[in-house]
Amino acid sequence: MQIGLVGLPGVGKTTLFNALVKTEAETGSFTGMKGPNRGVIKVPDRRVTLLSELFKPEKITFATVDYLDIAGITSGAGKQEVQQDDGGGIAALRNMDVLVHVLRGFPDLADTPITPKEDYENVEVELALADLEIIERRLGRLTKEARSTKDPDLLRENELLERCKATIEDGGAIRDLAFEGDDEKRLRGYRFLSQKPNLLVLNIPEEAIDQEASYLEMLGDLSSRLETIALCAKIEMEIAQLDDEDAAEFLQDLGIEEPALSRMIITSYRLLNLISFFTVGEDEVRAWTITQGTTAPEAAGEIHSDLERGFIRAETAACQALLDSGGWQPAKEQGLLRLEGKHYTVVDGDVMNIRFSV
């Protein structure tokens, strides 16, 4: 999973990035000159730890999340994207699965009014304009070709792009549109920014960490339409620099139930309908990330294409049942091990041993 942090300059994006990936990237308005910050983190999952304690593998592999922190988005950034596609800035966001909008909920040095709802809308406009640039360039060639060839695929693509164009020009976002059949697949290659799932993070001052609900009210109707989180990025960055024991004590003292990392990943998984399943053994315990609704053979294909091609069945047990029983053999003896076939839909927390033949 890849997550991009976006927002206006000075909202605390890089501070939050430091908290998430436990690094010390420079903060401040000057950081935009240095290119985007990138980091990879392990998805904290206690189930992986517990399974590793049970099976004592040579290797432990957590799922990972890639984070991208780009420079603050300013007016006109959307129109500049196509002309300045240098792998950074807005262009880099097209590879992201989720966009995290970091919004200022704290007073700045200039005592500028706190307007997170308007700030979000301003950034959304720039992202939509970047999409509009792509659409108009494509339509410039596609419309003529579709009409001359009468190719049904080109005609349908042209129709869809015209629909997207009209939506953006009316002030909407492509994510507001409902697509049927293969229409979404036809547009997938464009990687539209205004189609990506959004998570809003309101960066609040230190003294307000126990007032998250009241601060989120500043987002107005956005709170009911989108996933929102309120946190203090500065405190989260300080927590990230501590070892696990000190961090836990600090969180308890502040009354914070869990750090930003866990909250953001859980929410991002939910936005993308992602779940985890596990493979275990003496060689490795590993977490795998799949989309909800994935069948057993498709899940096996995430491990290796041969496993999907030659799938026979999957020996399956719920993670907690396997932990409670003490391993594969005890789980089998207690009737907790199931044999699932090709039509089985994997459930979050399944531990699977794939049987295959190629």
Description:
- Helix content is 42%, strand content 20%.
- The chain is an alpha/beta fold and 358 residues long.
- The strands form three sheets. A six-stranded mixed sheet has the order 2-4-1-5-6-7, sandwiched between helices. The chain has a three-stranded mixed sheet with strand order 3-9-8, sandwiched between helices. The chain has a three-stranded antiparallel sheet with strand order 11-10-12.
- The longest helix is centred in the middle third of the chain and has 34 residues, at 116-149.
* Proportion of helical residues: 40-55%
Q: In total, how many domains does the architecture comprise? A: 3
Number of strands: 12
Q: What's the architecture of the largest domain in CATH terms?
A: 3-Layer(aba) Sandwich
Silhouette: flat
Radius of gyration: 23 Å
Taken as a percent bin, the fraction of beta residues is 15-25%
What's the helix count?
A: 16
Under CATH at level 1, the class of the largest domain stands as Alpha Beta
Largest sheet: 6 strands, mixed
Brief account:
The protein has 358 residues and is of the alpha/beta class.
Blueprint of the fold:
Blueprint: E1 2-6, H1 13-21, E2 37-42, H2 46-55, E3 59-61, E4 64-69, H3 77-80, H4 89-92, E5 98-104, H5 116-149, H6 152-169, H7 183-188, E6 198-203, H8 212-216, H9 222-225, E7 227-231, H10 233-240, H11 244-254, H12 260-271, E8 274-279, E9 284-291, H13 296-303, H14 305-309, E10 311-318, H15 319-325, H16 328-333, E11 338-340, E12 350-356
Parallel strand pairs: 1-4, 1-5, 3-9, 5-6, 6-7
Antiparallel strand pairs: 2-4, 8-9, 10-11, 10-12
